[in-house]
Amino acid sequence: MRALGIAATGMMAQQTNVDVISNNIANANTTGFKSARAAFQDLIYDHRSREGAATSEQGSVRPTGVDIGLGVRTVGTVRLNVQGGLIATENKLAMAVEGRGYFTVNLPDGTNAYTRDGSFQLSAEGQIVTLQGYEVDPGIVVPENTVDIEVSEQGIVSAYIENDPIPVELGQLTLTTFINDAGLRPLGNNLLEATNTSGDPQQAVPGDPGVGMIRQGFLEDSNVNIIQQITDLISAQRAYEMNSKAIETADQMMSVTNEIK
């Protein structure tokens, strides 16, 4: 009886669904986090009778076929790149991207990663770095005697040094965009990496057409909608239970068949 295998694929699919939803809920307060959803496809079909097949010598045909599906499978997790809310902070180096774009980060192995998490700090050398100590690209060094830092919406970083009322321009932050944001691969630590499906990284100045702006003193909150996630979790639980019920029913039907003498 194929119902056992079909329902088993349904249970595995809903387990994956619950895993994705659980990760969304766990990261409800993660800076710059983008929620995801599991995407599913039905499996191949057993075509027991083709639609359009002749049913009589007079030329009448079957209007519908008999197609028995063999279950479901997970084909991907789709990241929902919707803007999260902005949260004000007291950190002058905190930056949020309002709109499209990612900060570029230099990893220790020489490759680049991308993030929406602007929780930046200063290294011992005055370099602007992430909370993991990775340098932000392009690199900007803040002088030791800096008393205040300003970051414009266009990404220009300036510093007020000692008692000088005129700020000194330190550098220009850029944002990186991709044709297909959903194609970026998550690495953990709020970092993403480019892939063949994301397209090549395109660096631009904040505020350019199609590129977001930088908001100093703000962080982008997670875009997870807790109420929606709880609703999805309940739905996934009910679907899992119904698949397990299908297995139980199929098992009972097989027992009845075995008892026939």
Automatic annotation (TrEMBL):
Pfam families: Flg_bb_rod (PF00460), Flg_bbr_C (PF06429), LlgE_F_G_D1 (PF22692). Keywords: Bacterial flagellum, Cell projection, Cilium, Flagellum. Residues 96-159 form the Flagellar hook protein FlgE/F/G-like D1 domain. Its main location: other. Residues 6-34 form the Flagellar basal body rod protein N-terminal domain. It comes from the Bacteria. InterPro entries: Flag_bb_rod_N, Flagellar_basal_body_rod_CS, Flagellar_FlgE/F/G, Flg_bb/hook_C_dom, FlgE/F/G-like, FlgG_G_neg, LlgE_F_G-like_D1. Signal peptide: none annotated. The keyword Nuclease does not apply. It is found in: Bacterial flagellum basal body. GO terms for biological process: bacterial-type flagellum-dependent swarming motility. The basal body constitutes a major portion of the flagellar organelle and consists of four rings (L,P,S, and M) mounted on a central rod. The rod consists of about 26 subunits of FlgG in the distal portion, and FlgB, FlgC and FlgF are thought to build up the proximal portion of the rod with about 6 subunits each. Belongs to the flagella basal body rod proteins family. This is Flagellar basal-body rod protein FlgG. It comes from Seohaeicola zhoushanensis.
